[in-house]
Amino acid sequence: MSAIKRRDTSKKRNTILDAAIECFIELGYERTSMDYIAERACASKRTVYNHFASKELLFNAVIARFIVANEEQKQIDYQPATSLAVQLRQFAQLKIAVSQDAKQLSFMRMAFGVLLTHPEIAERVMQNTDKSEDGLHNWLQAAVDDGKLLINDIALAAEVFWSMFSSTFFWMALLQGPQEKARCELLTQEFLETFLAKYQVV
Predict the structure, then answer these.
(1) Domain map (residue ranges) of the chain
(2) CA 80, CA 146: separation in Å to the nearest integer?
């Protein structure tokens, strides 16, 4: 396949994914059809099926795209000359940004409903989710190697960090809407101080 054709194929695939997101948000999973998605994407039904063999696979691909986009942003390099708090704040802001993304929140609200009522889909989504370590693992390990943090279990420390921000920002946003900016800043500062009080070498 030529480079131009690959670009065209990738562009069409992304157009279909964008259309699917809009349809799933507006109509829900059950009412959305491949016909609706094809119409929204200005593509033929055959083209949609050439990229995604079923609505479930298209739904899974949308979830995967959100996950990949979020994980790619977490690839933050450790900077020895920059304070730990400043660097950790970058990771925190990524989670806060997701909680402020209206389209992603709308889709996730719909998606969680699907996963709760269709356990077979949920199982396949989990099987296809990349379980590789995110950028925070690498950052924490680099800080440990630099003698700035003392952590015996990197995976546990990363889980603690993300849990603080996910429960307060992402899950609260799903249920009640995003936190106000001042509240986000106050909580972020408290969480960072708590995390560093546990792991920072003094």
Answers:
(1) 1-53, 62-199
(2) 7
Confidence bin at 92 (pLDDT 50/70/90): very high
**What residue ranges in the chain does DSSP mark as E strands?**
none
- Pair 103, 25: CB distance under 8 Å: yes
Tell if the pTM clears 0.85, that is, is over it.
no
**Residue 177 backbone zone (phi > 0: left; psi -120 to 50: alpha; other: beta):** left
65 within 8 A of 17, measured Cβ to Cβ: yes
Higher pLDDT, 48 or 68: 48
Percent composition of the chain: helix, strand, coil (DSSP 3-state, to 5) = 80, 0, 20
Answer yes or no: CATH 1.10.10.60 is held by domain 1-53.
yes
